[in-house]
Every structure is written in structure tokens, then in C-alpha cells.
Amino acid sequence: MEQSKFGTFMIDDLYLYRASDDYKQVIEEKIVLPEYDKINQLKLLLSRTEYPISAKILIENGFSELTEELKENTGLKSCIIHHKLKGDQKVSIVELEKRISYFLCQSFIVNLDETRLLNLCLGESMTTRVKMCIESHLNTYNNVLNILIDYCKDLEGYDFQYQTAIKNKGMINSKIYIQDRLFIFLSACIGANYGYIVNSQYDLPIWGINISYDSKIRMYNYRSGTPYTDIKKEDLLSMIFSTPSQIGEVQKMIIDNIKLFFDINISLDDVCYDWSKESYFVKPEVEKQIIGSFLNEDERDKDKDVVKYTSLQTLLATLISGKIRINSIVGMNDKTETNFMIDMIKNFREPIEEEGDEYLLANRKFITSFSGKKDDLNMWRLYGDNARGICMVFSFKSQQNSVLKKIQYVAEEDDIIKRLNQLMLSLKDLNINFYFYLLLNNQHFIKHKDYKDEDEYRFLLKNEQPVGWYINNDNNVLTPYTERELFRNGGNAFPFELKSIILGPAMVAKDVNLYQIKTLLRTKYKEINIKLSKIKSYR
Q1: What is the tens place of the pLDDT at every residue in 313-352?
Q2: Are 138 and 28 a contacting pair, CB within 8 Å?
Q3: For residue 273, what are the β-bridge partners?
Q4: Which one in 53, 202, 255, 512 has a CA-CA gap of 20 to 30 Å to 420?
């Protein structure tokens, strides 16, 4: 900084502390704050004024921002308040320097890049201590996370996932899912105070673990409402993954019943305990032996064309917006969809289950349907506005988290249905909570055989937030929906390429509409093959 006979205006630098890409290391980033834009005018004022200078003189000469209440940031969410200066209150050169730093820092933080930001400090004198505290905090966090991850990875037969992120500046968290349910929420509030907000009981983990500022481990069981303080690392696993005392006897009864109804021999290790649902399930390879005929493979890696029949009005809305609407399963035409086969999937109510939860959970699943039958007379009648609409032909593009499956059609009189019911009722009579995990995740790809002629495929999105609501005219149900970009790439892209559009055999003015659709597509997006239906016999 420029030298003055009244002192050197030394403006503090700002230091940011970010987590590395893998959230393992602390990266220090020095930010040189911009120069105070009135520094020369301030020096001129001081050169002809007695000092310490009064707040009144600073205000009268246009420096009121330095006399206002200012925050000295000691962290992302912590600060020291320096009160507003008034009248004849005197300000020393040193204090003036500090107030300039606070003012510049306060202005900079408003637009601060929050990417992986853990904490900050103002001034070099604080950097060593702040960085050491953050590193200790983060190290304890990662030690606990690694203990949990290593244990979960060794849980053979369980569906285990986790994700780590930094939320709300300085709050790092990891969500650990077991059997597709949030089980552990691990957090460290390094530079911030944070409250965990949930929309329903299903968003609440069984265990909350927090690494406090002093690197101590605190836990909370959300199911029982029990807090635990100053936990030792070696006690974590035994507390979190405790199982019922009679687990061996229960596993044996499940094995005997599966042998009775399906003539399959399995071991104790094949029967697993689900802590979130307080219930039992079998490993995937065993479940496939039992209900394998209900499971269709994901079409992700297959070169598959599928079609969607709809009205001309819906096509127009889709092309104008460039978005495909995907509706919640609540709005499906078949009112049994949300609970189809539910009694064969599980034989109990969860401890957190309440009336209406089936709709709560269904509102988070979004499905759009396709058919494998292109330019089919019956499909035109059912879904193509009585053949006056259109048929969109899509090619599936492999994309992470995209699930496209062919519907499996079953009949209530099928032998396997009867045996599943018998198994579930038998285990329920023994007071054993049991469910089929694969069947639970595939229930929306199973329909009654009465719909077999539709040759249906479904694209499913889970745990989505709706972008809007509408009233489904087919069943008068208020239904949420989400959307995907039809003609763009990126994270919100629809994982299907629109290859062609077929105009229905009964469409009015089809020759004119063929040209109009081509024109609309050409001006907005790209050339797509538009053609007329080959069906000539429609009446």
C-alpha cells in the first residue's frame, strides 16, 4: 500500500479454505481485496485534519460507509459486530484501516464463489490457526466416513450408495443409503451453523452423526430420539449396525418357509436385516431365483426404438417448449398402479408409515410410457387421439440414472403369484417383517396381463422434484410432473433421440400438417423425418 505520513494503509487479505475435489485436503486460497476506491480522497482529508478523526468529519466528507455498523468475519457464519460510529466519536488510523478491510471484505463476500468452501478468515495472522483447525476437523470427518464406508462395502447382498457434498458454505455432509433409503447423515459444520430440514419422515435418516468444532463425535438416533455425545470411533459400528437378539432364529424360519414354498435351499448368510425398515430380505441372487420371471433387464445397452402415441395438440406444446413432460405415477391411467402387487412385495407397515404415504412416495417417481408397436392400429385408437394424433419414434440413448425397461405382464392366477402370497402370509403369521427388494424397485415395470397387447416400455425417474402440477383429464387426479430437454444435451436432457414423427391415419388435413410440422421443426430445432401412417384400413 501507498505510504502516508499518517501511517501505511495496510488492507488485510482475505483467505479462503476449500476442500479438494475428493473432500480429503484443505486448500488455502489468498484473495487480495480490491483497493478502496476513495483511498486518495481519504489520505487528502487526513493530511489536513487532526487525528484521531471524528465520525462526524468522515460522514460530512463522504466516508459514511466506514462509520456504519460493520461485520468482521471470523468465519463463514461467525463475525464480530463493530458498531456504528456517531458524532464526535474518534477513529484512529489503525481502526480506520481495519474498518476499510471489513467494508471491502463484506462487499466481496456477497458474491463469493461457494464451491467446496469450508471457511475463511481476514488477515494473515489468523491463517495458521484457522487452517490447522479445519484440517483437524476434516480429518476426523473423513476418518469416520471411511469407517462407515468400509463396513458398508462389506455388507454382502445390500444395495449401498453414498454421496458427499458441501452445503450452505462450510457445512460438509455425506449421505449414506442402504437399500435405497437414507440411513446415515454424517456432517461437519466447519464454518457454518446448520439445521437438517426434511419434508417427510422418509427423508429423515436413522442416524445423524456430527463432527463438532472440537472434532468430537456426536450422534443422534432420529427413530428413538436419543442423543449420544463424545462417541469413540471404535464404538460407532456396534451402535449403528446392531441387530435384533433373535436374528438367528428369525433367519432360520425365513429359510424354512422359502424352502417350503419355492423348494430353494439357502443359508443364514443369504437372509439380511434392514435397519431402516426393521425387516428382513434375501440377497439379490436368491431373490432372482424366486421372482426372476418378473424381472426384465434394463434396455440401457440395447439399440432399441420405442414409440409414443399422443395428440397433435400435445406434440405442438412439446415442440414449442422443447421439453418432454414426465408425470408422477399417481396420475397413471390404471388406478391400481401405485399398489400393484404390494402384498407380494412386503408383509408389514414400516414404523414411520402413515395413511396416504403411498401418494407421498408416488409423487417422487415419474414415469413416461412407450410402446414397441410402431404405427399400430389398436395403439392409434387407444392413445393416438383415435388415430387423429401422431406417433413419435424415439431411439434410447444410454445415460447415467436412466432406466428404460420393458413391462412384464403377469396374471393373478399364475402359480408364482399364489406362492408369493402364501410365503408372505406365513411369515406375517410368525410376526416376521419381510420384503423383496428387487421386486420393490421393479414394481412399476409389472402390469396385469390384460395390458399385454400394448407391448409397453417405461422410463422411470426417482427422487425428482416436480416443476409443476396439472389435472389429469383421464382420471381427474391432481398430478405433479417434471420435464426433460428434448433437443439439448446436458444433465437435464431427455435420454431419447426423436428420430421421426408419424401422422395418424385419421388425421384431418394430414398433408398440410405434415408440411407445418416440418416447418416448425426446421425453424426451431433440426430436420426430422415426418411421414404419414401406412395404415389404409382405418374407419
Answers
A1: 999 999 999 999 999 988 775 545 545 678 889 999 888 8
A2: no
A3: 280
A4: 202
